[in-house]
Amino acid sequence: MPADQTKWGRDKEQAKVNRLLGLARGGSKGSKHRNVRTLHKLKPEHLTPDEVAIITEYEAELTRRGHFECIFPVKETVDTYTEFFESPR
Q1: Number of domains in the chain
Q2: Domain residues for 40?
Q3: Residue 60 pLDDT > 80
């Protein structure tokens, strides 16, 4: 573990953002760009580790939200809330 914990945390968070945006370097061999429509047709054993991680993270977020309703990112509010984020979502 690096001596500078703050930098390590920032680097880890940036790597996560890059992975979610499809900007991660390297990645899984043979990784393909897929959207939700194609992912739901696949069997779990055909998903890449990155795809499994993204789906798992999304499902965890849904569980944590409780009774709150997601207002972003949804089609109706993207233009309203995008300006408040440092990077595209």
Answers
A1: 1
A2: 5-21+35-84
A3: yes
Does residue 27 have a pLDDT over 60?
Answer: no
Residue showing tokens 């089609």? 75
The tokens for 87 are: 């990077």
Q: What is the Cα–Cα distance from 33 to 83, expressed in whole angstroms?
A: 26
The pLDDT tens digits of the residues spanning 41-57 come to: 778 888 888 888 888 88
Q: Is residue 72 in a domain?
A: yes
Residues written for the chain: 89
Q: How far apart are CA 21 and CA 68, in angstroms?
A: 25
Ordered alpha helix ranges (H), the chain: 5-21, 36-39, 49-64, 78-81
